[in-house]
């Protein structure tokens, strides 16, 4: 199986193009491929597929084999791959995801895509649609006690669920201790991605993320969008802000005009390869 390793701010993916669709053992395949000791090693497995309604379709599988509805960093990789290796005709593409048909705009220099702007859609705030168990219709400033600590989170879906938590120092926060417990907390019926953030200025925030189905990653595009939405609603951030992640910066804008969130950032290749499995990956 031919693949390309790509990343968006070091959130890394194995990208596969397949005209036939995803294989029946996709969950097991994702687990095997993403394993950093015995596989290729990645946060997720991404398929680029034909689409009847868009230029192409993207599906994203986490390292634990679960499928996500949305992935901000992967969609930028798919856009770059599509333009540079499949069809370079248009600098504006439509990409079908589980969330929607998403528009992306490419900045191209000497035939290479240097930046990608993505319409990440309207944030979903209604608690039952995130989904999050809450007595409020919008789960803002919800309390959650985990072990010895009380957290205050706001739940936002960008197609996939996020819990945004402001902490004093995101860079030093013990994310590996609390991240998995919040990801799997009964408040979140579909589990959740968890963002620990520290606001510096109205247009600048540092974020670390514990991703559903993966663990800590170097960046999360949909999480950066959720961070700006949750924080702007509380007046903690402007609607346009730079989100500083371990892997680099994303510019996020939650536009008043259409209520959509726009994300701008880079995408990059690591290497191409062939995957030949020397032991079987069984069907479930
Ligand atoms: N890294 C991604 C999100 C990937 C999916 C996530 N782990 C989930 O299960 O929702 C991003 O850049 O948005």
TrEMBL record:
<feature type="binding site">
    <location>
        <position position="193"/>
    </location>
    <ligand>
        <name>substrate</name>
    </ligand>
</feature>
<feature type="binding site">
    <location>
        <position position="11"/>
    </location>
    <ligand>
        <name>substrate</name>
    </ligand>
</feature>
<keyword id="KW-0413">Isomerase</keyword>
<feature type="binding site">
    <location>
        <position position="160"/>
    </location>
    <ligand>
        <name>substrate</name>
    </ligand>
</feature>
<comment type="function">
    <text>Catalyzes the stereoinversion of LL-2,6-diaminopimelate (L,L-DAP) to meso-diaminopimelate (meso-DAP), a precursor of L-lysine and an essential component of the bacterial peptidoglycan.</text>
</comment>
<keyword id="KW-0028">Amino-acid biosynthesis</keyword>
<feature type="active site">
    <location>
        <position position="71"/>
    </location>
</feature>
<comment type="subunit">
    <text>Homodimer.</text>
</comment>
<feature type="binding site">
    <location>
        <begin position="221"/>
        <end position="222"/>
    </location>
    <ligand>
        <name>substrate</name>
    </ligand>
</feature>
<comment type="similarity">
    <text>Belongs to the diaminopimelate epimerase family.</text>
</comment>
<feature type="active site" description="Proton donor">
    <location>
        <position position="71"/>
    </location>
</feature>
<feature type="binding site">
    <location>
        <position position="62"/>
    </location>
    <ligand>
        <name>substrate</name>
    </ligand>
</feature>
<dbReference type="Pfam" id="PF01678">
    <property type="entry name" value="DAP_epimerase"/>
</dbReference>
<dbReference type="GO" id="GO:0009089">
    <property type="term" value="P:lysine biosynthetic process via diaminopimelate"/>
</dbReference>
<protein>
    <recommendedName>
        <fullName>Diaminopimelate epimerase</fullName>
        <ecNumber>5.1.1.7</ecNumber>
    </recommendedName>
</protein>
<feature type="binding site">
    <location>
        <begin position="72"/>
        <end position="73"/>
    </location>
    <ligand>
        <name>substrate</name>
    </ligand>
</feature>
<dbReference type="InterPro" id="IPR001653">
    <property type="entry name" value="DAP_epimerase_DapF"/>
</dbReference>
<feature type="site" description="Could be important to modulate the pK values of the two catalytic cysteine residues">
    <location>
        <position position="162"/>
    </location>
</feature>
<keyword id="KW-0457">Lysine biosynthesis</keyword>
<keyword id="KW-0963">Cytoplasm</keyword>
<feature type="binding site">
    <location>
        <begin position="211"/>
        <end position="212"/>
    </location>
    <ligand>
        <name>substrate</name>
    </ligand>
</feature>
<feature type="active site" description="Proton acceptor">
    <location>
        <position position="220"/>
    </location>
</feature>
<dbReference type="GO" id="GO:0008837">
    <property type="term" value="F:diaminopimelate epimerase activity"/>
</dbReference>
<feature type="site" description="Could be important to modulate the pK values of the two catalytic cysteine residues">
    <location>
        <position position="211"/>
    </location>
</feature>
<dbReference type="GO" id="GO:0005829">
    <property type="term" value="C:cytosol"/>
</dbReference>
<dbReference type="InterPro" id="IPR018510">
    <property type="entry name" value="DAP_epimerase_AS"/>
</dbReference>
<comment type="pathway">
    <text>Amino-acid biosynthesis; L-lysine biosynthesis via DAP pathway; DL-2,6-diaminopimelate from LL-2,6-diaminopimelate: step 1/1.</text>
</comment>
